[in-house]
Design a protein that fits this description.
EC 1.1.1.60; globular; alpha/beta; Tartro_sem_red; 6-PGluconate_DH-like_C_sf; six-stranded parallel sheet; 2-hydroxy-3-oxopropionate reductase activity; HIBADH-like_NADP-bd
Length: 297
């Protein structure tokens, strides 16, 4: 591990956080991690990191603190309070929140951290579990240019496309737009799959030729096997996409942007969750189309 790289504390070692933190270790960073499940801390230690029993312990000596947790309440839980990041990280530390949360939560966090001398970037990601493992994530960042410049080498160890989108909260706004596009795209692919199968077409052949034309997309490439094999092991859970569709519909309402198709897909995601499929991958939107079409589920 290189001694001249910043020391990193990583909070949240889930589907995305575990492979991302391991990629930092591979890039030579000293990473101390904390998460709620001991087995996931043990995985980080096995990969060459160090475990911490609490947020406070993890962040105490860190130059950079990265958070990757499910939603706004969890970000607030690890950031605030006597045992949280803001009370325990050193002045001058850089907090990079890579969770997908509301833009306002990011703006508020940056404001509160500033009083403690802690710099903040919101840096949510797109690319799912595969993108995290392969270190090819798209990372959309909000915050000060100087802080972004300082964080860039670390972020480039995690992703292939790293872009500052504007001031605090901008990364989250772009992530919300990303989740809108992804959900609508998955829904369109799911409808095409059911249409093709009911028409008696060879689905694998059809998806191959669709992928080579204007209908091709990263979503179709990444989710092709999910659709073909009905394999909905979670790379990105319906529960989380439901949360994200709530973020984008609320944010769009606040700025006066109409999302007519997005609102319908948000309801389809919500209905899938209500039917007990919340823990499945978001490609399981196929299941709701099958139900509506009276197909095998």
């Amino acid at each position: 591990m290189s001694s001249n790289l910043p020391k990193v504390a990583w909070i949240g070692l889930g589907i995305m956080g575990s492979p991302m933190s391991e990629n930092l270790i591979k890039a030579g960073y000293h990473v101390t991690g904390h998460t709620l499940e001991q087995a996931k801390v043990d995985r980080l230690v096995a990969a060459g990191g160090r475990g911490a029993a609490s947020v406070a312990e993890a962040v105490r000596d860190a130059d950079v603190v990265v958070t990757m947790v499910p939603a706004s309440p969890q970000v607030e839980a690890v950031a605030y309070g006597p045992d949280g990041i803001l009370e325990n990280a050193k002045a001058g530390a850089l907090l990079i929140d890579m969770s997908s949360i509301t833009p306002q939560t990011s703006v508020d966090l940056a404001e509160n951290a500033k009083a403690k001398g802690i710099r903040v970037l919101d840096a949510p990601v797109s690319g799912g579990e595969a993108g995290a493992i392969e270190a090819v994530l798209s990372i959309m960042v909000g915050g000060e240019q100087a802080d972004f410049d300082a964080a860039r080498p670390l972020l480039e160890a995690l992703g292939k496309t790293v872009v500052r989108c504007g001031p605090h909260g901008s990364g989250q706004t772009v992530k919300a737009a990303n989740q809108l596009v992804v959900a609508v795209n998955i829904q369109a692919c799911a409808e095409a799959v059911v249409f093709l199968e009911k028409s008696g077409v060879d689905l694998g052949a059809a998806l191959d030729v669709l992928a080579g034309g204007l209908a091709g997309s990263t979503v179709l490439a990444r989710k092709r096997d999910n659709f073909l094999k009905r394999d909905f092991a979670p790379g990105f859970r319906i529960d989380l996409h439901h949360k994200d569709m709530g973020i984008v519909t609320d944010a769009a309402r606040d700025v006066g942007a109409a999302l007519p198709v997005g609102a319908v897909v948000a309801q389809l995601v919500a209905s899938l969750r209500a039917q007990g499929d919340g823990a499945l991958d978001h490609s399981a939107l196929l299941r709701s189309v099958e139900r509506l079409s009276d197909s095998q589920v």
